[in-house]
Amino acid sequence: xxxxxxxxxYADTLAPNAAIATVTILERLGHEVVYxxxxxxxxxxxxxxxxxxEALRLAERxxxxxxxxxxxxxxxxxxxxxVRHLYARLARRAGKVELAERFEAxxxxxxxxxEALTGPLAPGDAESFFPHRVTYHPTCHSLRALxxxxxPLRLLEAVEGIELVPLRRAEECCGFGGTFAVKNADTSxxxxxxxxxxxxxxxxxACVAVDGSCLLQIGGxxxxxxxxxxxxxxxxxxxxxxxx
Amino acid sequence: xxxxRPFPDAAREGLANPQLxxxxxxxxxxxxxxxxxxxxxTPDWEELREAGRAIKARTLAALDEHLLVxxxxxxxxxxxxxxxxxxxxxxxxxxxxxxxxxxxxxxxxKSLTTDELGLNEYLAGxxxxxxxxxxxxxxxxxxxxxxxxxxxPALHRNRHEIAELFRRTIDREVGDExxxxxxxxxxxxxxxxxxxxxxxxxxxxxxxxxxxxxxxESEGNGRMCTTLPAVLVTVAGIExxxxxxxxxxxxxxxxxxSSTGERMNPYTSLWSGTRAGEGPSEFxxxxxxxxxxxxxxxxxxxxxxxxxxxxxxxxxxxxxxxTGGHAYGSIYPGPIGxxxxxxxxxxxxxATLPYASSLCGACYEACPVKIDIPDILVHLRGRAVEAGTxxxxxxxxxxxxxxxxxxxxxxxxxxxLGRGALRLVPWARVGPLRAWGRARDLPSREPRTFxxxxxxx
Lengths: 244, 457
Fold this sequence. Notes:
The structure holds two protein chains of two kinds. By secondary structure, chain A is α/β, with parallel strands linked by helices.
């Protein structure tokens, strides 16, 4: 199947490994990956911070760039949530009904990686091999906005060699929240401290999630605490292979 | 209207208080677990939520009509209705009723709305003592403190602090055991109940078709307030109305489950007007606007008026659990406060509240009437930006960023510049990222961007 890749701006710029791993898995499963280089940013940070005019401009740009795509896949739940839910909402509230319908039509073709791998792209065996102890943090947008349920966990369970350990209060937010981490830095840090402590208590070598932005927060906290636990994107685990 | 203290500043006090953090974590954790148990055993929970949402939405869409039906029903049951545009009018209505009967002491059952109005303070200025009879409210009143949780107002106090307070105020001899503390409060309050000639209550619901006021509480003290005194005054926001008696079927199922984690509420009092030889001989209903029609005018923001004050959103909120309720600067704390307060007092007076959330969505999931709190938070952020409450530097940065993202070429050169700067500038110590750097490391610099890798392969 032909899959069009949507790589969030921060992932492209700061943490490219999740997107590289996404390409690896999709190709290993026999899909053709296309990456429109015109793409920049979905506008989530503007939309969630109250800058709706700017967000709508970026939303219009986004639908133009991905207009021809049959199936768009992104390694980020919150960016997919922005395209699927926020775009049409902003357009409707600005009185742009036709635009909202265009957004909704595209939104139905955009999937977060674990959704895609357990939905439109299933079944397939990526022959993933990852001989490590891993804990899984369900990110807020994957859990409560996209409702991916246990899709990421099912994918992790199928990985050869992996040891999955449960995370205490897993469903609680890590404290990132985009500009929240800056505007309410102290509260965000208090939430992160509890998340880091819970992760460290599992004895896992890595904490896995499906949102790169949360992983920047969690990874930053883990690095600061010096525990040596890695923050990894689901794609990076699934891309693990025996032959490498 | 005075502005509330900015949330990030106010939050620091709670964050820095380990005793408060421990009290909050324990209390919210206990209620969370109880709630989950009684919600999961209810097979039609999602249908109940949807029914609650629909009733509230339908009622708010024709609120004026339902209020007039309510007024007629209350009057024909022998009650009197007072319309109060704002706090001043509501407070004066209560004071006038008290003065008319020569009353100088009234008993009250927990009413958030009268706290919002500052009724007790107003009455004190008129020489009228208002005694809170809900145990937690009494604790706060004796201590000159204020509520930090909608349902458990003294959540931030433990029993040793309470025992010490009681010894100082109502019973010099009382010990630290919960039973002894409850007994001391009971003895103190019994005298007040038997002497009081006027009671003031809030209302959880007002049934329009029957003119019925409903109070849901768990101590029984509310029942004494509403039955023993000769004069009863109920003060309630206009959004508390539900059209039909049958609507209570929905709310009396999911309110106790969402608030205290109980299947059924212990003391549910319902009364319509007055009845000869039974209970109060006079009943007054004060219907309060105090900003609510302004909230109603906002098609997105009005969702906040559906709230039934269960506080499930507080108990699941990771922000509330860490900052405590006082950080929200109003009698309505937590996620619901973050969407209600800015609308009641004006966004320019509480612009930091819509940002006091990571938009994690736990509140929406827990809300028994499905208020989409994250959506309203984002909507109010838009109103804050429109009102110009956010720093000019942020506005410039956001516009600049949007401009950069508007073209591939601008984006790619910004990437090059930014990645260079990440290496050259100690971001953990300067600029907006300084706050980030206090608790976390920045990502280590990757040797390439994704698009760089894509092109090179």
